[in-house]
Design a protein that fits this description.
Low-confidence stretches: 208-214, 258-314, 452-480
Radius of gyration: 25 Å
Structural class: alpha/beta
Mean pLDDT: 78
Distance between the termini: 27 Å
Length: about 475
């Protein structure tokens, strides 16, 4: 669209979006719509990456196997067959629109080494520069639990962080995130915008499909990961993939629209065209002002609340949940330390060490700040960092929370056990040598964004969701 900048967009598709859960036949019509959407985004100047599940599902169909086996080697063999067919299917569909694609298969081992991680980033950049759409999947044929990302939601979030994406679309079988499971609770309310994922208190117990590995819970984990890297993350329905195009267009329109003064409205400069493939009657309308947000007590508290009155000049957008990126994006080396490496152990630190490590002019982790060690690990291996405080008895420490960060350590677990709580000047005397005064250098430590300690109730959330429904109904009345 004119006047808007080119975006990097990562689209994640689950197995249920690619093949039928029961027959395992590929959903050709849905795949074709996805291809058309990706190509349309490319022709608008955007850079597109597709993260595609489905190797095992397609493999089951190819081999006429009814149920996914439990044995790891059998699943890996089926994935080997299915991945070949899956990429061939994608290539054939994209070929109809003369769009080149590339296959990238990853495991966590492939990015655990810093050089390999940078090589992967450079490959993505070069492919996108060439106008190619990379199609990413986990290398299920080789991956075991120790080196798996776990699910393609997580893989898509890591991919989005690697390429500094603007948007990550997590396609699923519902329109958006709800306060409860909409299939079983008729009073479930839609959540449109989430500013703080840690404030969510919703039912995400529903698992993924029988041929997939994900569910809504894994999408929230992926959203937390991606937003920490500065990536706006969106959950929307996979059966209408052209929603992606409309959502991107809507967000860009709101960003390009000048701020209005109270009591005034500004018509859309880029209304939905009449030749749009999705009928406007099937699209949920939203105002051009503030979408209801989780964490905002009321939409009416916004500075230009007076301009909430609806007019016919509204932006049109499909229903979706948007997770806003966090203030300070975790990028590059720190992102790799937090999400590219699998920790081999845990180092417990006191609160003073945590404050020193997270201040603006942060220091490295000194042995005096270490209170305990868990696990066996060697030098330059990744570990979890967890805060501990003194217990009731002398020399007793208790963990006071979840993992706060990760680090690459300069000493092995056995060495850190010997020097913990000591001054750096004592390291050489205790170990017989001192490679460095730090247990972990500041450039090799990274911390997760601080989260709200507990979820809030949904009273304010439901209020804003009800306002959203009123907006939807008003917009539909205007259309009719």
């Amino acid at each position: 669209m004119k006047g808007s900048r080119a975006l990097t967009i990562v689209i994640k598709l689950g197995t249920s979006s690619i093949c039928d859960e029961r027959t395992h036949e590929p959903l050709i019509s849905n795949l074709s719509l996805i291809v058309e959407t990706c190509v349309r985004l490319r022709r608008d100047g955007h850079r597109v990456i597709l993260v595609s599940s489905g190797a095992i599902g397609i493999g089951l169909r190819r081999l006429d196997i009814e149920h996914k086996p439990k044995q790891l080697s059998a699943k890996q063999a089926i994935a080997a067959v299915g991945q070949c067919r899956l990429i061939a299917l994608w290539d054939e569909l994209f070929k109809q629109l003369r769009q080149p694609v590339a296959q990238i298969l990853l495991t966590r081992n492939d990015i655990a080494d810093r050089t390999q991680y940078l090589n992967a980033v450079n490959t993505f950049d070069e492919l996108l520069h060439m106008g190619v759409i990379p199609i990413v999947n986990e290398n299920d044929t080789l991956a075991v639990s120790e080196i798996k990302f776990g699910d393609n939601d997580t893989l898509s979030a890591i991919t989005a962080g690697m390429v500094h994406a603007d948007y990550l679309f997590l396609m699923t079988d519902v329109d958006c995130l709800y306060t409860n499971n909409p299939r079983t609770h008729s009073d479930a309310k839609p959540i449109l915008v989430v500013e703080d994922i840690s404030a969510l208190n919703v039912d995400v117990s529903t698992a993924g499909s029988s041929v997939g590995t994900g569910g809504m819970a894994t999408k929230l984990i992926a959203a937390r990961l991606a937003t920490s890297a500065g990536v706006t993350t969106i959950i929307t329905r996979s059966s209408t993939p052209s929603n992606i195009f409309h959502i991107v267009k809507y967000i860009q329109s709101t960003q390009l629209t000048p701020q209005t003064t109270p009591g005034t409205t500004t018509p859309s400069s880029n209304p939905i065209s009449t030749d749009d493939p999705i009928a406007t009657s099937s699209i949920i309308a939203a105002t051009k002002l503030h979408t209801p947000r989780l964490g905002t007590p009321s939409i009416l508290s916004q500075p230009h609340a007076a301009s909430l009155a609806f007019s016919k000049e509204i932006f049109v957008c499909p229903l979706h949940t948007r997770f806003l990126p966090q203030g300070r994006a975790i990028r590059d080396r720190h992102f790799w330390i937090l999400h590219g490496l699998k920790p081999h152990g845990t180092v417990y630190i006191d609160e003073g060490a945590y404050r020193a490590l997270t201040r603006h002019d942060k220091a490295g982790l000194l042995p005096v700040g270490v209170v305990a060690v868990e696990g066996i690990f060697a030098q330059q291996e990744p570990v979890k960092l967890v805060i501990a405080r003194k217990g009731a008895a002398p020399d007793q420490w208790e963990s006071i929370g979840a993992e706060v960060g990760r680090a690459l350590v300069n000493y092995s677990s056995a060495e850190i056990v010997r020097i913990k709580g000591k001054k750096s000047s004592e390291i050489a005397q205790i170990l017989g040598y001192a490679d460095t005064e730090y247990v972990a250098h500041r450039d090799n430590t990274a911390f997760f964004p601080e989260q709200t300690k507990s979820g809030t109730d949904l009273k304010s959330l439901v209020a804003t969701a009800e306002e959203a429904e009123a907006a939807i109904e008003a917009a539909m009345r205007l259309e009719s």
